[in-house]
Amino acid sequence: MANRLVVVSNRVADPRKTAAGGLAVAMGDALASSGGMWFGWSGQVIDPNNPPPSPGPSGVHVHKAGNVTLATVDLTADDHQAYYLGYSNGVLWPVFHYRLDLADFEAGYIDGYRRVNRMFAHKLLPLLRDDDVIWVQDYHLIPLAAELRALGCKQRIGFFLHIPLPPPQILSAIPAHEWLMRALFAYDLVGVQSQTDLSHLHRYLASEAPAEEAADGRLLAYGRSLLAASFPIGIDVDEFVEIGKGAEARELYGKMREQFAGKQLLVGVDRLDYSKGLPHRIRAFRHLLERYPDNRGSSTLVQVASPSREDVEAYHEIRRELEGLCGAINGDYGDIDWVPIHYIHRTVARKRLPGLFQAGRVALVTPLRDGMNLVAKEFIASQDAADPGVLVLSRFAGAAEQFADALPVNPYDTQATAEAIQAALAMPLAERQIRHQRMLEQIRQFDVHWWRKSFLETLMES
Ligand code: ADQ
User: Can you give the residue ranges of every domain in the chain?
Assistant: First the structure.
């Protein structure tokens, strides 16, 4: 692509750092090849009465990371509260994960959300060149293109939603849903993770706009047309395999083999988020110990849950609930020489993570709802093809559309999940190998480079 790529997301990461994670690496690749720019929030919250030294007249911090320009802006405490904590993570995150019960529709939040999107548009516009292609990421920035268009921006703009898109009956519970969904029509291309999400978008627009579908699949409404498609995100398989061969991963693998010698290990790695189904997973593990007592003393669950959004109330509750559930199981079933659950509330360094996955005989990826879930793909990439582990995967993760060879579960049905875990633990080698091989082919074919290329090519053709 000859045009310069401009990525806009809530947070910006230095793509040269491994700690940044798969998405940052993928964006970094794309940006480096076009000498692009990455724009977003600096992560800094400032007091408008006592601002730090100004980054310059435009209020934009500009840094070079190789040939990529990182351009960031600060948020005031009020904007951070309303746009980030309030609307993005207190309304859009729960509703898009089908959790109307957790949404806080406080009226002031949406004003902050609009205000920050408008402010982003004002700060970004002067940095743009005529032939730039702009790629906006995720739910924090849905109205950004509409704000840019209002200022006269003519460049191509694409949008990718990383989280699920719920059915119309749920979406339409958002007080300003018409405004929010109409804003998508300012984009030249809207990408979602799965066919399920895409069908929800079609159904919503057909009933609420109402939109008609043109012969080429475009949606026609509000006097405009919208091209929407699904682009399931992948991981950088080669990069993850390389990390797995590194000293840090090997060391963690070795330690785990030693510490849990003779035990079958189940692993779970998540952000501590209510969408990830952690309490349900722990209850399923309890059923496993009850129903299949041979696992007592011989199977251990290592659950790592990284701290996340700790200033949002719903996240305190999930943490307390999880600690209580794990503590009760360890108290009821544990012994001097065996602890059923090793629950760790922290982030594992990316360079060590494959070591944890390599040690796992079974991965439990059981979200109640997930846009995609990259942990499932990282687990598959980490396995030894000669003696691979088994993936137990929620049917409500976007990844389930791609993984017919995982053991599918309904995470709400904790009894049935326990049975699937037992089947995973007992699966013969030949079956594990076949399933793993087919899933590995999937993640290699649809890796993060495929995702980026297919989205940008579709955007350029749109
Ligand atoms: P997340 O909700 O953050 O992402 P996920 O895709 O599972 O979910 O994980 C993102 C990354 O975080 C993975 O690389 C994983 O290894 C890492 N990670 C998670 N917990 C960790 C821990 N305890 N320690 C270390 N690393 C950890 C959102 C959507 C997903 C979608 C992605 C990408 O919610 O559905 O798959 O974006 O589009």
Answer: 5-234+448-461, 237-445
Length of the chain: 462
From the alpha carbon of 376, which atom of ligand 1 is closest? 7
Cα separation values, 266 from 38, 161, 269, 419, Å: 38, 31, 10, 14
CATH 3.40.50.2000 given to domain 5-234+448-461: yes
**Residues with beta carbon inside 6 Å of ligand 1?**
21-23, 162-163, 233, 269-271, 304-306, 347-348, 353, 370-375, 378
Q: Which of 373, 382, 396, 451 to mutate for ligand 1's pocket (most ligand atoms within 8 Å of CB)?
A: 373
Which residue CA neighbors atom 33 of ligand 1 most closely? 162
Give the model's confidence band at 103: pLDDT under 50 very low, under 70 low, under 90 confident, else very high: very high
Question: Is the sign of the CA dihedral 305, 310, 315, 321 positive or negative?
Answer: positive
Cα dist. 108→97, 173, 201, 213, 246 in Å?
22, 17, 26, 35, 48
CA of 364 to the centre of ligand 1 (A): 14
CATH of 237-445, one of 3.40.1010.10, 3.40.50.2000, 1.50.10.20, 1.20.140.10: 3.40.50.2000
pLDDT digits (tens, 9 = 90+) for 322-363: 999 999 999 999 999 999 999 999 999 999 999 999 999 999
Dist CA 128 CA 6 (whole Å): 8
pTM exceeds 0.85 for this model: yes
